TrEMBL record:
Keyword DNA-binding among UniProt keywords: yes
Gene Ontology MF: a single term: DNA binding
Provenance organism: Sphingomonas naasensis
GO-annotated cellular components: cytosol
Entry protein name: XRE family transcriptional regulator
């Protein structure tokens, strides 16, 4: 007898379809309520498009949904065993968050209940003074410098400079900040954040205000 694979966790598109079904909304009605065009919602529901952070925030506020539900990193339902999942990372389809210090590109956001959160970051902050207070959040993170040079400031260690191809692994609850090194206008890093605790995505989103 062939082994039957368990269904994957729902995508953002499936979540929106289920929300529409529960409320008996047409796509047009959801568009009016959320302020997001019908064509965009249709593409999201068919998993052909994701939404930027600003649009997800708009959706959560107008439809009264928690942001973490849209990222689906938390769920009150017990997690079912996963037998096979995959997601192709694509910057063009990433959820983008722009801040004074960084441009974040959250990857693979259609994959639900991830234990790791991959993100590509463009680092623009020039100094820790310009950066502001060191940030803290739950879990651990790995940072790999794709291009440029960065200086990593942490709460308990002297600053360290990382060149292209170098990396660092830290406890994220230790205050930390990444800034560009002298002579470097912008750096690109690949980060992977992970936590055994619930609420990692909420912690990261709260960093963005």
């Amino acid at each position: 007898m062939a082994t039957r694979l368990k269904p994957e966790q729902p995508t953002l598109g499936a979540l929106l379809r289920a929300l529409r079904a529960r409320n008996g909304w047409t796509l047009k009605e959801m568009s009016v309520k959320s302020g997001i065009p019908v064509s965009t919602l249709s593409k999201v529901e068919h998993d052909r498009l994701t939404l930027t952070y600003d649009k997800l925030l708009q959706l959560s506020q107008r439809l009264n949904i928690r942001m973490s539900e849209l990222f689906a990193e938390n769920d009150s339902v017990a997690e079912a065993p996963v037998t096979a999942r995959r997601s192709i990372g694509d910057v063009d389809r990433a959820v983008r968050v722009n801040t004074p210090n960084y441009d974040y590109y959250y990857l693979c956001t259609e994959l639900r209940r991830k234990r790791m959160i991959p993100v590509i970051t463009r680092v623009r902050a020039k100094s820790v003074e310009a950066f502001g207070d060191l940030v803290h959040h739950s879990g651990e993170e790995f940072i790999y410098v794709v291009s440029g040079r960065i200086v990593v400031h942490t709460e308990f260690y002297d600053p360290v400079t990382l060149d292209t191809g170098e990396s660092i692994y830290i406890d994220s609850n230790m205050g930390h900040a990444y800034v560009t090194a002298e002579g470097c206008d912008e750096a690109v890093v690949l980060g992977v954040c992970s936590s055994a605790e619930d609420g990692l995505m909420d912690s990261l989103l709260n960093l963005h205000g």
